[in-house]
Design a protein that fits this description.
alpha/beta, flat, disordered N terminus, disordered C terminus
């Protein structure tokens, strides 16, 4: 009866962004948007498989009488506010003047939005000049920018997951498992969300899109991390070639998660591989509790949050194991000489691009090019027409510059000076 009274989410799956035109009158806009976010972006879900548009359960600390009193108080306040608003609407002194909706203005400059973006980013100030450079645009710059976009922008990890059933102690029987117990399947589904390998756009971790390594697999991602889980029960064991390919993908992972339902402890040498530096072995116990055993090589530094011998509740087991596996992978990568994180490598490559294509300019030249990248002149509306009087004057001025020179023109003043010099020299000769 309790499960029947629990709030349920909508059955209809929404994969298109809800708009006001598409939403019906009986639908709630916020509910539709939450359903869309939960469907298209599973990383936003607070719990795997639980939609965002499920209403919250009523609090257990509030009785039904208290809930009714709160509802009556809210309705009473709404009625009083509505009555006060109606009373004020009838009073002319309480009415506000109607304001016209401002009309959008077209920017006068073609680079208005560009300068506005730079101003919002704070790049127009002298303090940010050292972080802002002008680059010479050429084919090599465009090619290097495309190469920058192809580089990974998030931290990537690939983690192997094995299932060991009762009585299995050799690699052939373990690798031929195509499914596990219900507790194991629930644990795997809690590690991430299922992605289709044929159309997955994120990190693949070496898996193939041609269905040779399975159809789907758990995948987890945040804004800075991508994790691909290589689950042994999701890869096909049809032939010896498939088993070899499965062993190659699983064995090359440095972190192994082993779900063991065998009565004996799991041994490291069951899956022969040179990797597998960290083993996180999970043993089911009673009352939905699980024992965690962590085996690592001596040179691997400490990581958490789980530790060897920890006992974890089944509700938080997938989240804790995933966090421990990610930290174990980070600890192993820290042992690599000259290892760089993804953001360090990307920043170094970006600095190299700027160094090779930077155009040395002063701040004044930079500001002039940003605020006036190209000459931009506003021509008058009647720029193509010319008055007849002006055309006649121009033609008259072009007839003969010597005869029709202006009295104040340089050529006229020069001729007058030459005449005075001739007259003075002639009078001197006569005398």
């Amino acid at each position: 009866m309790k499960d029947f009274m629990a709030p349920q989410a909508k059955r209809r799956c929404r994969e298109v962004v809800p708009t006001w035109d598409a939403i019906r009158d009986d639908e709630d806009a916020l509910d539709e948007m939450l359903q869309y976010l939960g469907t298209t972006s599973p990383e936003c879900l607070q719990r795997a498989g639980m939609p965002l548009n499920i209403p919250a359960l009523p609090p257990t600390c509030i009785s039904e009488k208290q809930e009714n009193d709160v509802m009556n108080a809210i309705l009473k306040q709404y009625t009083e506010e509505k009555g006060f608003a109606d009373k004020c609407n009838n009073n002319l002194n309480m009415r506000a003047m109607e304001q016209e909706e401002p009309c959008p203005q077209r920017p006068q400059s073609a680079f208005y939005y560009c300068r506005l973006l730079l101003n919002i980013l704070g790049m127009n100030s002298w303090e940010k000049r050292s972080n802002f450079h002008l680059l010479r645009k050429n084919e090599k710059l465009l090619r290097e920018l495309k190469n920058l976009d192809s580089r990974q922008c998030r931290e990537t990890h690939k983690i192997a997951v094995f299932y060991v059933a009762e009585g299995q102690e050799d690699k052939h029987s373990i690798l031929t498992n195509t499914s596990g117990s219900q507790a194991y399947e629930d644990f795997v589904s809690g590690l991430g969300w299922e992605v289709n390998l044929t159309n997955h756009c994120g990190f693949l971790g070496g898996l193939q899109r041609n269905k040779s390594t399975g159809f789907s697999t758990p995948y987890f991602a945040t804004s800075t991390v991508e994790v691909m889980f290589h689950v042994s029960t999701r890869m096909p064991p049809d032939s010896d070639d498939s088993l070899t390919k499965k062993l190659r993908h699983l064995g090359n992972d440095e972190v192994h998660i082993v779900w063991s339902e065998h009565t004996r402890d799991y041994r490291r040498g069951i899956i022969p591989t040179e990797f597998g530096d960290v083993l996180i072995v999970i043993y089911p116990m009673k009352n939905h509790m699980y024992s965690v055993q962590i085996m690592k090589k001596p040179e691997v530094p400490f990581f958490g949050p789980l530790f060897d011998g920890a006992i974890v509740d089944g509700k938080i087991l997938p989240t804790m194991v995933r966090a421990t596996a990610i930290n174990a992978s980070r600890a192993l990568k820290s042992l690599i000489p000259l290892y760089q994180n993804f953001y360090e490598e990307r920043a170094r490559y970006l600095e190299t691009i700027v160094h090779h294509h930077r155009e040395p300019t002063t701040f004044e030249d930079y500001a002039a090019q940003v605020f006036c990248p190209a000459p931009f002149h506003h021509l008058p509306a009647d720029a193509g027409s010319c008055p007849k009087n002006q055309q006649v004057e121009n033609q008259a001025a072009q007839l003969d510059g010597n005869d029709f020179a202006s009295p104040m023109s340089p050529r006229a003043s020069k001729s007058r000076m030459s005449m005075k010099l001739r007259r003075s020299s002639g009078s001197a000769n006569k005398s």
